[in-house]
Write the C-alpha cells for this entry.
Amino acid sequence: MFGNSWVKKEKPLPTIIGLGGGATNLAAASAAVATGPWAGDRGLFGGGGDGTGSVDNEISYVSIPSTGNSSDFGDLTQARSGMGACSSGTRGVWAGGYPNTDVMDYVTISSTGNATDFGNLSPTRNELAGLSNGTRGVFGGGWLAPGDSNSMSYITIGSAGNSSDFGDLTQARHGLAASSGETRGIFAGGNEPIRDTIDYITIASTGNATDFGDLTQARLDVTGVSDTTRAVFCGGRTPSCQDVMDYVTVASTGNATDFGNLTAARYGVGGCANNNRGLLGGGYCGSAKADIDYITILTAGNAVDFGDLSPTRYKSGGLSGSAS
C-alpha cells in the first residue's frame, strides 16, 4: 500500500511520510538540433498511485504541441507505480514498478488500446528510471529489497523479450531521473541517502556508468525530460516538496544549472517530451496532483500550465512517440 505502510516496506526516507521512489520518462528530441528517432508529439502517462493506497493501470495520452486535459489510452497489463519507461518513437515500454514486479509491457503509441506483455525485467525492482536512444532502452537503479540497486538492464525496444545486464550505476539508488540524447543516457538524483549525483552511459554499448557532475540540489523522486542537446530535471523532494528545475548539456559533463520552477512544488511527476516541449504530469505534495506543466526545453524559464492529468496520480511512467 501507499502511505506509511509503503514507506516502511519500500524503505524510502525514514524521516518522511509519503512515498519512496520516483517517476521516470523517456524524452524526445529538439527540432532546433538533430531530431532523435524517439521524437513524437503524443505523450503517454502509464500507471501511478492515487495517494490513498491504490495503484492504477490506466494509460492516458496528450498531444504535446497543444494544451488541454489528458484522454484515456488503455490499460497496463498490471496496475503499478514507480516504473521505468522508454520509447522507440513507435513503441513505448514500461518496466518494473510497485508492487515489486518484473513485468514489462508495451503499446504502439499511435494506436489506443491496452498494453501487451513484453518480457521480464531482471533484477526485479521498483522506483527505477528508463531512457532510450530509439533502439535500445536502458533501465537504471531502483529499490531491490533489502536495499537500493545499482543495476542497469537493457532491452531492444522493437523486439519483445527479457532484459539483459548493461552494467552498474556509480551509486545504488532509487527515485532517480533519466534523460537521453541520441548517444548518451543520463541518470540523476535519487535516494538513499538523497543524492545530487549525475551519471552517464553510452547507450549503444554496455558497461558501468561514469560520473557526469552534480544537480543544483540533491533530491529524490525527480523527473527528467530532454531533447538531443539538453536534459532538464524537474521537481522532487529533499524530503520537502520542491519546484526546482535544473539542466545539463547532454554531450558535455559538469554540474547542472538552474532552469526555472514548476508551477507548484511536487515530486513523482511523469515526464515526456517532443522536439521542443517537455511535459510534467501529476505528482504529489500532501496529496496526488492532476497538474500538467510544460516547458520549452531549450529556453530556461518557469513552467506553464498545460491542463490536467486524468486520473489524478503520481509516479506514473511517462514516454512519448509518434501520433500516427
Notes: The first strand starts at residue 42 and ends at 49.
